[in-house]
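In the previous chapter we treated chains in isolation. Here, by contrast, the input contains two separate entities that must be folded as one system, with a combined length of 784 residues.
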Amino acid sequence: MENFVEILFGLGDKLTAHIVLAASAIGLGIAVALPLAVWASRSQTVNRIALGFASLVQTIPALALLALFFPILLSLRGVFGEGLPTLGFLPALLALALYALLPILRNAVTAQANLDPGVLEAADGVGMTSWQKLRLVEAPLSAPFVMAGIRTASVWTIGAATLSTTIGQPSLGDPIFAGLQTQNWALVLAGCFASAALALIVDMLLGLIERGLAARKFKQWGGGMLAVALGILAALAFQFGDDWFGEEREEGDLGPIIIASKQFSEQYILAQLIGAQLEKAGYEVEYRDGLGSAVVHSAVASSNIDVSVDYTGTIWTNNLKRTDNPGREVMYETIRNWEQEENGVRVLGRLGFENAYAFAMREDRAAELGVTSLGDLVPVAGDLTVGGDPEFFERPEWIAVRDAYGLEFGGNRNFSPTFMYNALRSGEADVISAYTSDGRIAADRLIVLDDPQEALPSYDAMLMMSPRIAGEEEIANALRPLLDAISVEAMRKANFAVDREGEGKLSPKDAAAALAEEIGL
Amino acid sequence: MTSPDPSATVLAFEQVERRYGDAGEVVAVGGVDCAIAKGSFVALVGASGSGKSTLLKMVNTLVMPSGGRVLFGGEDVITLNQSQLRRRVGYVFQGIGLFPHFSVGENIGIGPRLAGEALPAERIEELLTLVELGPEMATRMPDELSGGQRQRVGVARALAGDPELLLMDEPFGALDPITRDALGEKVRELHERLGLTTIMVTHDMAEALLLADRVLVMDAGELLADCTPRQLLMGEGGEIAQSLVSVPRQQAEKLAAMEGRLA
């Protein structure tokens, strides 16, 4: 577990980002919930609407709520201008603050409803104005209950903040997501441990404040608040200290080049490979790992990130909304022009390999059923279960294949990419939607089924540059050695090194270094 | 001892009404006319739901009249600044309503504090003495006090702002009989000593007869009788008033008979 401890101590910047995000979200939640609770205690209508809305928000999975803020903020750019960030801190803050609303609001409203009516009548009777009544009577008497709500909200928010990784906000979710994708359990454990420890410490401190308020012990709740404030200040200083005390950035300096990766090993490796190339050329780089697949393209187009690797088939169906298959070269050229004209994104070139969707089976199982192509599956599909990644069965590729061959499987199941192969091995799925560059195809002795009708489009990996850096020829030159340099075999090997378990398992960074050596960089 | 001065009217009800419901179909108080002279101790007696509490609360606008006028010192109460009005009127009620997060001293001083004036410790001590509590009580918290002590603090709080009028809504309702009796006597004594004008709502006719010098009997939102205790005991005030008077009278007679038998 030496590895675990080492990772844990390396999480400082993720921890501070996590604290700053969670504290801001809870702060915003409190700032909205408390006035709303006061209003709700004076109006039945507001009470019903506010609590109804907060409960509704709570039913939306946190992951979906975070992702939803991307299109919402994108559409708000019409109002607030192009400078409005759509990824990272702002959407994470808004989604988490919404999530924090319910417990604070509900506790505050309940506390108000349960105040002794005699005390409230006395407050009116002695001539308090409604503001004096709120300040002198209702607020102090409700405080312990409100604090209990804030405590619940804080624990939730600290947990849910790990999900903000998927929209490009650094947090303790980074090691968790990276670890899940690359089967690095020490990384997952370190992220979970840090986030749980943070939640427990915050819960303890807020509990201290809550009891101090209930017992009207100023020293106790004051001390608790001071501790919380110092913790947040320390995190802020750690995160922004460089900006405050560091040197001013010079005119024309690009600042760090931000490299994105989606949530699978190949993307982590390629991000590291790109990062190493840029660092070699003297650029400062930052990584936004584990972004949601749908988010990456928009993030590049809006220059929230600068470099990404995307795939022709993905852009073709998701962004160009095309369902036809004009062939590999036409697709690539069409996308290149479209990106240039529509988004100002520069497609620098192709890396040389494809990571296409393909259907894979275990060799022995395929032989047993006599299957070598998708067409062979048709008569036996009714008895088989097909596994796909979470988006696969919504994708046009699946619909195209299904309709082209008339495939009807006995059952569909979703797995995260990592677990898909385990499912195939354990027999929980008979056929999976594999990726052609996946190292496990060879390692697990899988066969990729032929596609005689060419229903599946090509998925050439492309190097994308955001509008912000599209004109930077030095960057382009630094990245050019990667173009047409990575064969599918080389990519599979690197992917497998990260995905495998036991001996020979590499971190994405080491795998990237090995890949660089192999392709002669 | 100050006696009621009929020429100086502190408070007047003019056709005061309080109706509830969309069409005003529920009548809590239906057209009360009455004038309260300075220095009088008036008891407002009636069964539950007779409208006596509602009528009282319209004085300091805890309940707003839906018709007619309540004149305090000649001015319609709804035209007065609500907070200022309430600070001119001491208010004691069954719920007591001490602020649990304030000490006894802070509770007593709250009215003047709202007016922007901190009550000096000597004045708090003086008020505590008035209600027969020791000065050490000032630093106690309300939950350390007995029920009787709390209501004494409630009375001291009502008196802290030198009110022109003292309103009491079932002030002794939650107290045990001995405490109740002692506190009743105390309030009557303070009424004399401080020259107060007092209106006390109670459902207990015996309490009204013993403490007040004028008894108003209400039923179903109407003022049925307006008599002195003596007049009521002489059989005046009508049937409903007499049925209320008969309860303590019969109790007293039965007790006297039992004593006779024992003797």
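The two ends of chain B are 38 Å apart (CA to CA). The first strand of chain B starts at residue 5 and ends at 20. Compare these points with the single-chain example from earlier in the chapter.
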